[in-house]
Design goal:
Shape of chain A: rod-shaped
CATH topology of chain B: Formate dehydrogenase/DMSO reductase fold
Number of strands of chain A: 5
Shape of chain B: globular
Helix content of chain A: 40-55%
Number of domains of chain B: 1
CATH architecture of chain B: Up-down Bundle
Largest sheet of chain A: 5 strands, antiparallel
Helix content of chain B: over 70%
Strand content of chain B: under 5%
Oligomer: heterotrimer
Strand content of chain A: 5-15%
Chains: A alpha+beta (about 425), B mainly alpha (about 350), C mainly alpha (about 400)
Order of helices and strands of chain A: EEHEHHHEHEHHHHHHHH
Distance between the termini of chain A: 124 Å
Number of strands of chain B: 0
Largest sheet of chain B: none
Largest interface: A-C, 65 and 64 residues
Strand order of the largest sheet of chain A: 1-5-2-4-3
């Protein structure tokens, strides 16, 4: 491979067919000798000259005329990109895309974004420095002609080497040997470069190809999963709160003595929105149990003061809850009824018109009770409609009824006058 | 105030030529300032301006002394050529310390135009201030302030002794001399005094209940001021050929220290600001808020720009630190920023709700 | 064993005490350092030590498994508001790491050449300390498998993390710190790995060291770029190390809790971190130097200098304790005052007084030369500091 060349005369062996000359290496014992030899060689016009040392030798940059590296600019760029990126990221994420207020801080606050901005700037600058070293130094480069020489092995420990490359037009191995020996080189050798086979061994190639193929499987699986649908439940590697042990309403539980999963309200507690009100207001009658149809215990009037707001509320609630069956005008021709009769549903009973005398004559409390608990086929609406709203519906219903059956005496005199004029 | 440059002893000619006129100019300015104050008749403004500039002057000397102490403590070798200058700068503390006497005299004479807590009636009304009366009272304040020159004598004597004794042998002492230790400990406690004075000023004036501000910031700002002044003086002496030993490497090192401590000042200032801003407790935030409204906002922004942003980029490159005119420029900027820093600390508290005065 | 090895100076060249003892040459230093990893036979003591530490590590994994399976109530964290035990450990470990960066970066910037004997050691300690620190915040979130939610990545919840929370700053600070420490450590180690590669005799070693040395040839151009990069990384790591513990202190200090909301926290945490970190370096270094025969490279002078740094930071920490106390009184805030008195007299009084004794009083022994020169006395004090922190 390499031949030890005494400074003079140079005798190079016939190069083996698989290698060609890379250059020559001269070994020195001290940095001073290396420096003087490097200066002399540089003056002789060599351009592809390199020094290899176990530690950075001061003055070598000047001797070899190495231009200052541009690495600081790369690092500065990294820092600026990091700072700008982090600042913009925080402001976009917390201020624009997902704004949320934390302890009254502005959505885009400069002081609180400085720590992260600073950290990301440092991180990217450090990456720029590290990868800049690799980039500018052409690393990693695991194979190098120098590694094939025995003498190089001490250069990373305690010896100093000068290497001239053969593709330099001024390269002359003989001259190199003379100059370096003059400056105290202990040995000079030529370096051969192995060019026998640049092709990868078949085994390595096969291994590489199969690794790449294997590595493609997960992304392909993911792509397939994203592109298709599946009826299977998703896989739950971590269950979190997805499947919690719990008892459903109205079931039994061995945990409590009474065997019920649901707990009774503790006596004396009041649920939110359930403040006790006058039973007459919440039921529509004054007795303990619902009285008979003709009883005098039905409330005869609406127990909350009728206002225009209450009327509007009653109209709204009526149109939401009642009109579907009873019709907006209360004639019993709501859309559900119409449709049911169209379909000739045997079980459907057409609701009675609310303008019927039997309804009009009922006391307010009884109407209220009907809404609360239902009548005949009509279900109770106690759970959907609050007591005040039920009274509001009663109020509106009375207004509806009056609209069909009002007497002139019911109308204020001045309004009556206007009405007469318009008709 | 007067930056009495104590020139290096081997340049007697220079000393005679420049020091005399400088001293006269300084004293003249002082007299003129006092006259203006008497004529305008605004005692509070006079005292606060006096305090502000007194602190600024003494800060420079303190920073230089801190520099000297650290060089001794770490046995730094590179700084030998500039250490004499720093030692001389630190000696200015001596004469400047005496300029605190008028403040103390006024304090003992029951003047409360500068310190609200010296007004007995006001303290009685304010439970917080009366709780601090054990610390904030005129005699104790005077004692604490006078303690400063006492330490000063010790330290300066040590500096000068070291100065004289080392001259003939011209070699560094190999061991860690007890004198240095003493010097450093003395110095440290003495920096505390300095910081306390500042705190007393602004904290109590703004009658803040709990401001954890002030104390850590003073060491970096003193160091920055001292370094900036030191760099300027070194550059000046080098320019007129009195310090030929100072090479570009020394300037580079001074520049790096200046840069580093300036960043450190920014770090301390920002971490205080962030904590108070974030917690947003009314009794603390008010201190900063006051400096963010009215005309003080501009002062704050100028401070941020001059004390951090501009020097941060201006002094970042290696070239800037090795180029004497650039370094001198940024030293001046930082020194000015330091003056503004003290202005920003003291004046808003004095002015109360008023805007900064622009009529000068 | 240095990133940028410095040619040894003989005492006659410099008035300063030499950095290494004995008649050292480049090759003898390389020999001393490399022989540790190049021994043909691993010593039995190593196996014993490795067995002990790996069984302790296994126990750690087992206990962490139990912790995760059971919930963080095991740590006593039964409220979603407090960290308690994990934050104590987190801050302690992050602080330990700071000394490594201080030695490698800040002392490098100050051109303190004595650092070269110990910097790689301290950097390795930093990386392990930061790894230890990372365990606690990761687990304390409760469901450690969801810890990636801390990262700002586009997700199906259409949410972003809250960048105004100091805990998220922690995430950025500590992960940046760990990454930069690793880069710094590795970058400095590349030439050393090349040395080991070229000294290696077996194929396996050649391959392994060669892989990590990335093909380093020690050319002048490579050194030129590496030196610049190392300097830049040091300049980046210096503010970074300050920022990390500053941000850790923000965890406490941005709150309204009396006794925590103090603006002295950032510098004081950093000083405390350096303090505890140096104590840890001394604790580990003295036995290591003894066992690996590095007494000529890590000389009594190195230990002496480290003791002085511990002493100086101890004074700073003591000063911070005193200032906190004064400020609490001065503030006139009764809650603030109570918080401090309660530390002294309340249920945690034992911890407070242990802390003051170990952190402020015992390190004062370093004023005496004897404690700075005798390795075992030195370690005793350093261990006290570790306990105190």
């Amino acid at each position: 491979m390499s031949t030890t060349v005494e400074p003079t005369p140079v005798t190079t062996d016939e190069p083996e067919p698989a290698s060609r000359l890379f250059g020559a290496i001269a070994i020195f014992e001290s940095a001073e000798k290396l420096l003087s030899a490097a200066t002399a060689l540089k003056q002789s016009g060599l351009t592809k000259l390199e020094a290899h040392t176990p530690y950075p030798v001061h003055g070598i940059d000047e001797a070899l005329r190495i231009a200052p590296t541009r690495l600081p600019w790369v690092v500065l760029a990294g820092a600026l990109i990091g700072a700008g990126g982090a600042f913009a990221m925080q402001h976009w994420m917390n201020g624009i895309d997902y704004p949320f207020l934390i302890s009254g801080k502005p959505l885009m606050s400069i002081p609180s974004s400085i720590p992260v901005t600073f950290e990301v700037a440092i991180l990217l600058a450090a990456f720029a420095a590290f990868f800049g070293v690799l980039l500018f130094n052409g690393l990693p480069r695991l194979a190098h002609p120098l590694f094939r020489t025995q003498v190089f092995r001490r250069v990373t420990s305690d010896q100093f080497a000068l290497v001239a490359e053969s593709d330099d037009p001024r390269f002359d191995e003989l001259r190199f040997g003379v100059i370096t020996t003059e400056h105290g080189a202990t040995s000079v050798e030529s370096i051969e470069q192995d060019v026998s086979s640049v092709a990868m061994p078949t085994l390595l190639k096969a291994a590489g190809v199969s690794l790449v193929a294997l590595a493609l499987i997960p992304p392909v699986l993911i792509a397939q999963a994203r592109a298709t649908t599946s009826e299977k439940p998703r896989i739950h590697p971590i269950q979190d709160m997805d499947f919690q042990a719990k008892f459903k309403a109205q079931t039994t539980s061995p945990f409590f003595d009474d065997g019920r999963a649901m707990r009774l309200q503790i006596s004396g507690t009041v649920a939110r929105g359930d403040m006790p009100i006058d039973p007459a207001i919440s039921t529509g009658y004054t007795s303990d149990a619902p009285p008979g149809p003709e009883s005098s215990q039905w409330l005869d009037s609406i127990p909350i003061s009728p206002t225009i707001e209450l009327m509007a509320r009653g109209r709204e609630r009526f149109n939401i809850f009642c009109a579907a069956c009873h019709g907006r005008g209360g004639d019993g021709d709501g859309i559900v009824t119409v449709r049911a009769l169209e379909l000739q549903q045997g079980t459907w009973v057409k609701p009675i018109s609310l303008h019927d005398r039997s309804v009009r004559d009922q006391p307010d409390g009884r109407l209220f009770n009907t809404i609360t608990n239902g009548v005949r086929k009509m279900p109770g609406y106690a759970s959907q409609i609050k007591p005040e709203d039920r009274w509001a519906i009663v109020l509106y219903l009375r207004a509806l009824q009056s609209s069909r059956n009002a007497q002139p005496a019911d109308v204020p005199a001045d309004v009556l006058e206007t009405l007469r004029e318009t008709n | 105030m007067s930056h009495a440059l104590h020139p290096a002893p081997h340049s007697e000619a220079f000393s005679g030529k420049v020091a005399g006129p400088l001293r006269s100019v300084g004293l003249g300015c002082l007299v003129v300032a006092a006259l203006i104050a008497i004529v305008s008749g605004n005692a509070t403004e006079f005292w606060s301006a006096w305090l502000h500039n007194w602190l600024f002057s003494i800060t420079v000397g303190l920073g230089a002394l801190l520099f000297v102490a650290i060089q001794h403590l770490t046995k730094a070798g590179w700084s030998v050529v500039v250490r004499r200058v720093a030692e001389c700068l630190s000696v200015t503390i001596g004469p400047i310390a005496w300029l605190a006497v008028p403040i103390l005299v006024a304090l003992l004479a029951d003047s409360h135009s500068l310190f609200m807590w010296n007004d007995a009636a006001h303290v009685m009304e304010d439970p917080i201030l009366s709780g601090k009366a054990a610390w904030l009272n005129a005699p104790f304040f005077v004692i604490r302030t006078c303690d400063l020159p006492r330490h000063l004598v010790v330290v300066c004597a040590a500096v000068l002794r070291g100065f004289c004794s080392r001259r003939p042998q011209r070699r560094r002492r190999p061991a860690f001399p007890p004198a240095c230790q003493k010097r450093t400990t003395a110095h440290r406690s003495w920096c505390d005094h300095h910081t306390r004075i500042i705190r007393l000023d602004h904290v109590t004036r703004s009658a803040l209940v709990q401001l954890h501000s002030g104390y850590p910031i003073c060491s970096p700002s003193a160091m920055v001021a001292g370094l900036a002044a030191l760099t300027l003086v070194v550059l000046g002496l080098r320019k007129i050929g009195l310090l030929p030993q100072v090479t570009v490497e020394h300037l580079h090192d001074l520049g790096k220290l200046l840069y580093g401590f300036n960043c450190f000042w920014a770090y301390i200032a920002f971490s205080q600001y962030l904590l108070i801003w974030y917690a947003n407790i009314p009794e603390e935030t008010g201190w900063f808020y006051h400096r963010q409204i009215h005309g003080w906002a501009e002062v704050s922004l100028v401070l941020v720009a001059l004390h951090f942003v501009l020097p941060f980029f201006g002094l970042m490159s290696r070239g800037a630190k090795r180029h004497a005119p650039t370094l001198a420029f940024w030293s001046v900027i930082i020194l000015v920023a330091n003056w503004i820093d003290l202005y920003w600390l003291i004046m808003p508290s004095v002015a109360g709700p008023e805007r900064p005065r622009r009529d000068w | 064993m240095s990133a940028v090895p410095i040619p040894t100076r003989t005492p006659s060249e410099s008035l300063r005490p030499p950095l290494v003892d004995g008649e050292q040459t480049l090759s003898s230093i390389t020999e001393t350092v490399c022989s540790i990893v190049e021994r043909p036979q691993t010593p039995r003591a190593w196996y014993i030590a490795f067995a002990i530490s790996s069984s302790l590590t296994l126990m750690l994994f087992g206990l962490i498994g139990y912790l995760i399976a059971t919930g963080i109530g095991v740590w006593g964290n039964n409220s979603p508001v407090f960290w308690g035990w994990p934050i104590v450990n987190f801050v302690f470990w992050v602080g330990i790491g700071h000394a490594g960066t201080l030695i490698s970066a800040i002392l490098f910037l100050f051109r303190q050449q004595w650092r070269t004997s110990i910097n790689r050691f301290a950097e390795a300690m930093t990386i392990f300390a930061v790894t230890c620190a990372g365990i606690f915040p990761a687990i304390h979130v409760g469901r450690v498998w969801l810890v990636y939610w801390l990262a700002p990545y586009p997700n199906q919840m259409a949410m972003w993390p809250n960048f105004r929370s100091p805990l998220l700053w922690d995430v950025f600070a500590v992960s940046t710190y760990a990454t930069v420490s690793l880069l710094f450590w590795y970058l400095g180690m590349i030439p050393d790995l090349a040395t080991l590669r070229d000294r290696a005799t077996s194929r396996v070693r050649q391959f392994a060291y060669g892989l990590f040395a990335l093909g380093w040839t020690g050319s002048a151009r490579q050194w030129h770029v590496l030196e610049k990069a190392y300097l830049l990384l040091a300049a980046l790591a210096t503010p970074l190390v300050l920022s990390v513990h500053t941000i850790v202190s923000f965890d406490f200090a941005v709150s309204h809790v009396p006794g925590w909301h103090t603006t002295i926290f950032p510098p004081y945490f950093v000083a405390g971190a350096v303090f505890s970190g140096f104590a840890m370096v001394v604790t580990l270094l003295v036995p290591a130097r003894h066992l690996f025969g590095l007494k000529d490279l890590i000389t009594p002078r190195h230990l002496d200098v480290m003791c002085r740094i511990i002493l100086a930071t101890s004074c700073m920490v003591g000063y911070a304790y005193a200032t906190e106390f004064f400020t609490a009184w001065y503030s006139g805030n009764r809650f603030e005052q109570f918080a401090f008195l309660n530390r002294m007299q309340g249920p945690y009084a034992w911890a407070y007084w242990t802390m003051v004794t170990c952190n402020v009083l015992i390190p004062q022994l370093y004023w005496f030369k004897r404690f700075r020169t005798s390795p075992w006395l030195m370690v005793g004090v350093a261990i006290c500091v570790n306990i105190g922190m």
